[in-house]
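User: Can you recover a sequence for this backbone? Please restate the input before giving your answer.

Assistant: Of course. Working from this structure:
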């Protein structure tokens, strides 16, 4: 593992967007213990804002689409950009995800590093190819199963382009990290499928089975943030952000069934997402491997959300 991967973020002035989302909230609360963390979101839920404030996060009501960053200081050291708009309104989502990204980085253009959270949904579907960072990009979400968020893949690609521009225009060090399947104590796609397993609902998988991914646990997301920040460059560092374990939906749902005494059922359809397994070689070279084995992570998720469903002997 690279030496900087073990260096925590300490005493930094950090701006984090998307605080009410699955990934950013836990990262913000963890970093607030040793840093001055400014959390940006709309905060439509006052209770969530209170929880984050109690954890030491300086919450700022912000609107990226409007370029309104409230009381966010301009002398930020590190930006962690997790916010994403998924309203299915193309104009509104472009303003928030693309224009908003540029306006945020302009506001924080003197930062020493930006971690721009992208997604492995930027890759052009290609069967069971293990995607490397240099592979072709495309609309991963152009399937009926993802019709509720049609702007996601395209605007993730567009936002990467803006991040690359800002790195050059402002001499701003950037890491573009393409996140695979985040899960754990804050939920995630496997948690939704766990609920399906418990309810005996069929789980959609692509006809080109198995549907393989690289799920990454909350603990590994938090552990790798400092190294991703340290890898930032004005010629942006682009890296897959994923667990080193490659595992299929069929496998992890089968294991969730073992843990809960249920037998998952699957429906094969061309309308589901195809595999998005990734090559983690560059990630391991930059920041080292992830450490939470997928079975351990899935079990802890069951313990967190459905403790009564866990079979003691499993």
């Amino acid at each position: 593992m690279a030496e900087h991967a073990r260096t925590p973020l300490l005493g930094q002035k950090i701006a984090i967007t998307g605080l009410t989302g699955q990934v950013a909230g836990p990262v913000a609360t963890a970093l607030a213990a040793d840093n001055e963390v400014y959390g940006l979101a709309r905060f439509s839920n006052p209770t969530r804002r209170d929880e984050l404030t109690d954890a030491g996060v300086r919450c700022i009501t912000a609107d990226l689409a409007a370029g309104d960053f409230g009381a966010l200081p301009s002398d930020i050291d590190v930006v962690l950009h997790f916010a994403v708009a998924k309203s299915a309104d193309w104009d509104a989502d472009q303003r928030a995800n693309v224009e908003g990204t540029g306006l945020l980085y302009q506001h924080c253009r003197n930062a020493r590093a930006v971690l721009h959270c992208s997604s492995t949904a930027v890759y052009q579907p290609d069967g069971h190819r293990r995607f490397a960072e240099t592979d072709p990009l495309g609309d991963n979400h152009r399937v009926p199963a993802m019709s509720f968020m049609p702007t996601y893949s395209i605007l993730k690609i567009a936002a990467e382009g803006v991040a690359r521009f800002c790195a050059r225009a402002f001499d701003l060090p950037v890491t573009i990290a393409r996140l695979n399947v985040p899960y754990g104590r804050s939920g995630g796609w496997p948690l939704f499928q766990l609920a399906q397993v418990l309810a005996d609902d069929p789980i959609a998988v692509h006809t080109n089975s198995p549907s393989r991914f690289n799920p990454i646990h909350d603990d590994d997301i938090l552990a790798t943030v400092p190294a991703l920040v340290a890898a930032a460059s004005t010629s942006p560092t682009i890296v897959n952000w994923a667990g080193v374990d490659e595992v299929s939906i069929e496998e992890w749902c089968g294991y969730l069934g073992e843990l809960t005494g249920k037998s998952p059922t699957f429906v094969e359809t061309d309308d589901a997402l195809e595999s998005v397994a990734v090559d983690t070689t560059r990630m391991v070279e930059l920041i080292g491997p992830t450490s939470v084995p997928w079975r351990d992570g899935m079990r802890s998720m069951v313990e967190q959300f459905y403790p009564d469903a866990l079979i003691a002997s499993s």
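That completes the design. The chain has nine helices and 14 strands.
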